[in-house]
Amino acid sequence: MFKALTLNDRILLYLSAAGASCALYRHGTLKEVHSLPSDEEGWETFNALLLNHPGKPVAIAVDTVDEVYRQDILPRAYGADRREMTDRRLRQLIHHSAYRAALRQKPVAGPGRQDRYLMMGLTNAEIVRPWLDILHVRGAHLAGIWLLPALAIPLVKQFRFSQTRLLLVSEQTGGLRLTYLEDGELRFSRLAPVDSSQHENPLESYAEEIERTRQSLVGQRLLARSESLRTLLLDPLNTLAELHAFLPESAGFQCESIHRAQLLETLKLPPTLLAESSDALYLKLLPDAPQSANLMTREQHANTRLHWMKRGLQFVAAAWFGVAVLTSALLLLDAWRLDRAADEVHAAMLENQAKEARLLAGIGGTAAIE
């Protein structure tokens, strides 16, 4: 529902353990990106933003190590049956968190009618709790909560990456984010805390984490040991160029970078906003996050449906009121036209009577005719 209303104004919020960023989204354009600390100062600033923009829905992206991903295959189902099936499976796999979602992916090849899902969850809700409390106090509408890796899906679509296997690497405030996708579909992601003090060049620590991820893919039989892994370095600050030297083709990597200029051009992101905060990149992608990856709880989803039902009823009421006003205006216009036509007929009749009187007077009156 949130994705469908892409032109609606809204507030976007990016959360991590190191801080937060927020932005306004108006008519499909990102505006006014601000960095916020994850403390009372940041909460007060966010509260003021909601006060200045009442009624705007809020979408949240979360970058945290407290995340879980599980691949699963379920029988094909539709509508309410699918929701009930995935909810039941989520309770079994991620029972310790209320913030969870079943991202539906491509059907499983073969004669059976089965679909592939990525079950995902936020295992520690403390990172979002104070911000949600502010939303509740201000009566603001929550549009959705997404884990940051879900934004990799619209990113690869916009860059049209069709590579079968792809490792997307980005430098975050909490460490190195490594996200693995197959055919544009998210398989898993991890935020690896990096201790740069162990090496003279901090990028060596990044290379170690990338190699560790590659070995994990091989261990899970997602990647053949001899197969080259396409590795994309998301580099909005142009600081990862030297990392290529630590990821040679001989080690099984096909390393590429997406530089700042490419990001600005492809995502149509104003340079000033990215200069304000590198989080602007993820805030720009947030409105296109897949709805099935929305982590909102059942209660929050119910509140969202109620919110949009109210909005729908208000729209219908406003539309009917508009129709009534227009109909009344048309009736008044018709009445005015009829009155004007009647006045014109009456004036013409009086003019004809005057002409007749003058003609009769000229020939001696009615008696002369008789």
Task: Report what the structure shows.
With 370 residues, the chain is an alpha/beta fold. 41% of the residues lie in helices and 27% in strands. It is built from ten helices and 13 strands. It has helices spanning 40-52, 79-93, 129-138, 152-159, 203-219, 260-267, 271-276, 280-285, 298-362, 366-369, and strands at 10-16, 19-26, 29-36, 58-63, 67-75, 100-107, 114-122, 142-147, 165-172, 175-182, 185-192, 229-235, 253-259. It has a five-stranded mixed sheet with strand order 3-2-1-4-8. A five-stranded mixed sheet has the order 11-10-9-12-13. Strands 5-7-6 form a three-stranded antiparallel sheet, covered by helices on one side. Strand 6 (100-107) and strand 7 (114-122) form a beta hairpin. The chain is elongated and about 125 Å long.
Describe the biggest sheet?
5 strands, mixed
Instruction: Enumerate the strands of the largest sheet in spatial order, edge to edge or round the barrel.
Output: 3-2-1-4-8
Class computed from helices, strands and strand pairing: alpha/beta
Mean pLDDT: 87
- Oligomer classification: single chain
Radius of gyration: 32 Å
Uncertain spans, ≥5 residues at pLDDT below 50? 1-6
Q: Which series of helices and strands comes N to C?
A: EEEHEEHEEHEHEEEHEEHHHHH
Tell me the β content.
25-35%
